[in-house]
Amino acid sequence: MASDNISSTSHINNSFSSGSSLILTTLILRYLCWPLLACLGVALVTLLLERLLRLVDMVLTKAGPLHIVVQMLGNLIPHYLGIAIPIAFFIAIIFTVIKLSQSSEWDAAQSLGFGLVKLLKPLLVVAAGLTLLTFFITGYLQPHTRYAYRALVHLINETAWNATLERGSFFFGLPNTVISIDGTRKVYDDLGVGQEITGIFIQQTPPNGNEITIAAEKAQIIRANSDDQLVIILENGLRLEKRQNGQSSIASFQEFRLPIDFSALDKQFRDRGVEGGERELTFVELIKLSKNPPALLSEDKILAEIHGQLVRNLSILALPFWAIALGIVPRRRQAGLGIAAGLIVIVTYHQMIQLGHSLVGNGEISPVIALWLPFICFSAIGYFLFHLTATRPGFNAVEWLSAHTPFLNRYKSFNRGKS
Fold first, then answer.
1. DSSP of 271-339, one letter per residue?
2. Angstrom distance (rounded) from CA 308 to CA 302
């Protein structure tokens, strides 16, 4: 009978512990979700707005359509996601840990015997998921979207009439077309913004083999607002067409409109891959080329890109250890110092990886020393601080870091003076 009572009590305790564990995990993930999404959104918007100003200036200067700016920004999202995800995840964990450590929920969890290891487990699961996501983004999406972005830049540059149509020069930027002018000035029309040209000469060689030559006293080149077309409005000129069968025809005109679809220019851009550098190659393509790199790519740059992607993505798995150690702050102490310390550590580590990537790419040092050694040190220190925080009551990683970091020490003294 006593044995049955003990077994029943043990079963009840296990069920209660399991239910409490599920509640705590749900609470942690709920606290983590909104800061993560908010930080990710703020980081993306900030980075894209900074680039938006430069893109708008570039496109408007070259009389390009504004919808290309939207396409360019869309192609930049995977690039900025690779930057924003680790930072947003790290800050979100710190906010989650601070909120838990300064609330009654964590007190209740500790009274049930749950420690920091229990807090770490769901965060590691999320970190593993984000690591796989960033592997997909950096190893597959970024090479394709980087190529698409460069293709759009090429498209804008090739149709940059304001910059390329110069007096006395020939313009070869359009398919099967050569243009020469005597002078130009900017004009505004109902169709859009464009240029007025004096003394224009156009020669076209369409796919059908005919040769068309047009000469006019003046013309206007208008980029239509409604579609991806340039409209050349020619005035007071002659049009000569020479056919393949030897016959020719000539006609004069007072006004002649010649639409040109510049979206076809995108097909002239180079293929994605080797010519665009190692950053346009997917991770699988980099692995295949690492054994026998082509002439345009060096083995060092390929190795730097492979090891750089691996180190950056795997570093996400070390972030929960750092964030928990820096986020556990007693209620009467300021939580902002942990966030400041964490950002300094992350930025410093990122700069070390960037420097190591450059050194490996230049063939000056091995990737084991330049990339993997900083990664191992970063992960080991994070685990060490987490272990001390979890096993030593009263240990505070922020106090330890501030004592060994002059900037943080001055920051702490300044805040104490204010209080």
1. PSSGGG-GGGS-HHHHHHHHHS--TTS-HHHHHHHHHHHHHHHHGGGGHHHHHHHHH---TTS-SHHHH
2. 10
Q: Which tokens belong to 101?
A: 């450590």
Q: What is the pLDDT of residues 240-280, one digit of tens each?
A: 888 877 788 888 888 888 776 555 444 567 778 777 788 89
CB atoms within 10 A of CB 366: 15
User: What are the respective helix, strand and coil percentages of the chain, to the nearest 5?
Assistant: 65, 15, 20
CB of 360 closer than 8 Å to CB of 303: yes
Enter the pTM of the model.
Answer: 0.73
132, pLDDT greater than 60 = yes
* Residue 154 pLDDT level (bands cut at 50, 70, 90): confident
What angle (nearest 5°) sits at the alpha carbon of residue 68, between those of residues 160 and 198? 25
Show me where the domains of the chain are located. 2-157+275-418, 164-267
Contact 84, 144 (CB under 8 A): no
pLDDT of residue 401: 66
Amino acid identity for residue 312 in this structure: R
Residues β-bridged to residue 159: none
| 339: Cβ contacts below 8 Å, ≥ 6 apart | 91, 94, 326
Q: Tell me, rounded to whole angstroms, the distance of Cα 206 from its chain centroid.
A: 41
Report the C-alpha gap between 272 and 147 in whole angstroms: 6
CA gap 99, 109 in Å, rounded: 14
Looking at residue 377, its amino acid is: C
CB 386 within 8 A of CB 325: yes
